[in-house]
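To: structure subgroup
Subject: Chain for Friday's discussion

All,

I'm putting the inputs and outputs inline so they're searchable in the archive.
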Amino acid sequence: MSGISEALEDVIPVYHTCKKCGRRIQEKIWRQNRNICPFCGRYDPMTAKDRFSLILDEGSAQFFGREVRAKDPLSFEGYAGKLRESEAKTGLSEAAVCAEGLLDGYRIVMVVMDTRFFMGSMSAAVGERITRAVERADAKRLPLVIFCASGGARMQEGIYSLMQMAKTAAAIETFSEHKGLYISVLTHPTTGGVTASFATLGDITLAEPGALIGFAGPRVIEQTIGQKLPKGFQRSEYLEKQGFVDAIVERKDQKQMLSKILSLHGVSKEAT
């Protein structure tokens, strides 16, 4: 079907409109440009599938954790139906996708959060998947890379969602005690309970250009403290200047940067 769709696009072009500059770009060109506007440079989210294709060596991904699915512990009105809708729309069973694979020959465990599924919110299932990924990396002595993107805790699961902050943070702490290497990559947006837990516990923290990173949103903070925030507050560029982010890395350079970090930390490549 994808081949038919691509063929149709050549005959009847489909366009993507940039939410920042308003310019129209042919969908095919926009995807080839890794979901980055060629006019203003705005970064749009990537699907988990595209992210794995960008980072892992072709054909090396071994996915796991798909059997862990969201439940409805509070019988929240309409939640079960929205879960089914998200699954049908995205082809995913949750917002976090886990895999073990090779990056330039280095074996890693990698997690990608996909904002198309409930805005990447952290459910009990998301917390469990991430914890399993951390434990897998720990058991196999592999580096861990998590591409974070989230709107925060999933309100439909209440306290069950909030508990994942402690759960994932504890797993990362154990991984760190065992000298595991954890690289966190913050993408747009990384907010709420995800920011307050595993997303900001990396040994090395990278970020994409222009990513919104924080706990509460800027408007909530301004209303709470009664002050105007600095320009660009909570954007990755501002946070890099404050030392919260180690480096901002463009998508085209991310695989190379991660490979370099793994090499500098003495990770061995698999024999070919």
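Points worth raising on Friday:
The chain has a mean pLDDT of 93.
The CA atoms of residues 122 and 200 lie 15 Å apart.

D.
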